[in-house]
Amino acid sequence: MGIADKAKNAAEELAGKAKEVIGDLTDNKDLEAEGKTDQTKANVKNVGENVKDAFKK
To answer: What pTM was estimated for this model as a whole?
Structure first.
């Protein structure tokens, strides 16, 4: 996994967490759900990259 991919996934996860927190604080369930979805996407991408790295070794 490249450094750029790691940074991009970390940023996406962080943005998702921020959306989730803001959605929770403002009682905006749609924004909260969107944040959770963004976090899940970032985690899935990380798993995919880890699988690719495992096969490269």
So the answer is: 0.82
